[in-house]
From TrEMBL:
This is Uncharacterized protein.
């Protein structure tokens, strides 16, 4: 069994992965934003902007979980 101390953590790779995640997520949101109601769009925009603010203010950004209604909106698309 692998322990956490045996895992080689590559900080640059992790940051690049998370930046790619946010970039892809922004394109996905913009792709189906026109199908959302104003209230749903406000929730998604608030969550996404919070993600970007966290990244801008931190040298080691972390991804928060999307709001609970986010998976339901994906089903609408």
């Amino acid at each position: 069994m692998i322990t956490i101390s045996q895992i080689d953590f590559d900080h640059e790779r992790e940051v690049a992965y998370r930046r790619g995640f946010v970039r892809g997520l922004s394109e996905a949101i913009s792709g189906f934003a026109h199908k959302l109601s104003e209230q749903e769009r406000a929730v998604v925009d608030g969550w996404f902007n919070n993600e970007l603010t966290t990244w801008a203010n931190s040298s080691e950004p972390s991804c928060a979980l999307p709001p609970p209604m986010f998976p339901k909106m994906a089903e609408k698309v």
